[in-house]
Amino acid sequence: MIQDIGMENTKDKIPKSKPLIAGHDYPRFYREFVRNFPDDSSCATYLEQLRWPNGFTCPTCNHVAEPSRQTRGRLVCRSCHHQTSVTSGTLFDKTRTSLTTWFEIAWHMTTAKNGLSAKTLERTIGIRYRVAWLILQRYRVAMVRSERKQLSGTIEVDESLLGGIKHGGKRGRGSKKSIIVIAVEVKEPKGFGRIRMRHITDASGSELLPFICDVVATGSVVQTDGWNGYNNLSTFEYEHQRTVLSSTNDLAHVSMPGVHRIASLLKRWILGTHQGAVSAEHLQSYLEEFTFRFNRRTSLSRGLVFRRLIEQAVVTEPIIEAKVTHGYNW
Ligand SMILES: [Zn+2]
C-alpha cells in the first residue's frame, strides 16, 4: 500500500515502482482509487514515485538521496539545501486546489468512457466550474505529450468540417464550421490503429502538409482524396495513394472509412459530453483529449490510463492560467 511509505521523517529511499496493490502500481477500480488516495499526502507520495522512480533527485544539484522532509510537503536537499516540493516544476505547481481533487478529476477523465465536462464536475464533485475547467485544460496539455510517436504503416488523411463550434468568443458572432484534419492508421484486414487531429485555418497545402510531416513517419503510405492541397505530398518521403472521387462528397465515407468514422465519433462526443459548448480557440485541446482517449481505447485497465496521465503531468511544465484562458498555443 502506498501509505506505508510515509511522508514524514523516513530515512528510507523511496522503493522503485512500489506496487500500490497486489503487483499493480495503479488503482484498478474506483474502490481501490478511493482507498489509495484518501488525502493529499498519499497523492504526493504517488507523485514522488512517478517523478523520481530512483529516489528523490534534487532539481538543482542532481544529488540523489532521501531529502529532509519539512512541514507542508517541503523537501530539502541534503547536499545543497535547496528547498523544493514534489509539485514544483510540474503541472501541479503552486496549485490552490487539493491534490485529491486533481487526482479525482484525472480518475474520472480517464476512466469515464467519454470523459466529462467541467459542468459535470461542478455538479458531481462540487468544485467551481472555472477551477474544474482550468484543471481539465491543463490535463489536456499533459495528454499531448504522450502522443509523440508518429503514426506509421498505412494512414488515411482527410479534412472534416465540424459544425456548432463557437467562433468569436463571448460576443458570439455566431457559429460557423471549423476545419480539422484527421489522420488514422488503417489496419489489415480491418480496424483502425492510432489517430491524430489538428484544427486548421484552411484546407490548403500549407496547413495540410506540415500536419502530415509532424504526425506521420516517413516511409508510410498516405491515402488521400484528389484534393489539390495534397499535391506535393510525394515530394516528402511518403508513398502517396490518391483516390479521386467523382464530384459528389457523399461518397467520402466510402474512400476514407477511417477518417469518416473518427469524425462522426468526435462530433458525437462534442455534442454529447460537451453539449456543443466548445469554442474555436479551445478546439485543439478537445481534439487532444479525444485523441488521448481513443488511442488508449484497448488498454486493459482504465487505471493504467489514469497512471499515464499523472505520469505525464509530473513531467509537464507549469502552465499559468493566462496561457490556457484564450486557447493554449500548441
Ligand atoms: Zn541539491
Helices and strands in order:
Blueprint: H1 30-36, H2 40-51, E1 68-69, E2 75-76, E3 83-84, H3 99-111, H4 118-124, H5 129-145, E4 154-166, E5 175-186, E6 192-200, H6 205-215, E7 221-225, E8 239-243, H7 252-255, H8 257-272, H9 283-295, H10 302-314, H11 321-325
Parallel strand pairs: 4-7, 7-8
Antiparallel strand pairs: 1-2, 2-3, 4-5, 5-6
Helix pairs in contact: 3-5, 3-10, 4-5, 5-9
Q: Could you please describe the fold and organization of this structure?
A:
By secondary structure, the chain is α/β, with parallel strands linked by helices. The protein is built from eleven helices and eight strands. The protein has helices spanning 30-36, 40-51, 99-111, 118-124, 129-145, 205-215, 252-255, 257-272, 283-295, 302-314, 321-325; strands spanning 68-69, 75-76, 83-84, 154-166, 175-186, 192-200, 221-225, 239-243. The strands form two sheets. A five-stranded mixed sheet has the order 6-5-4-7-8, sandwiched between helices. The chain has a three-stranded antiparallel sheet with strand order 1-2-3, with no helix packed on it. 34% of the residues are buried. The model is unreliable at 1-16 and 169-173 (pLDDT under 50). Bound molecules: zinc ion. Zinc ion is lined by residues 58, 60-61, 63, 77, 79-80, 82.
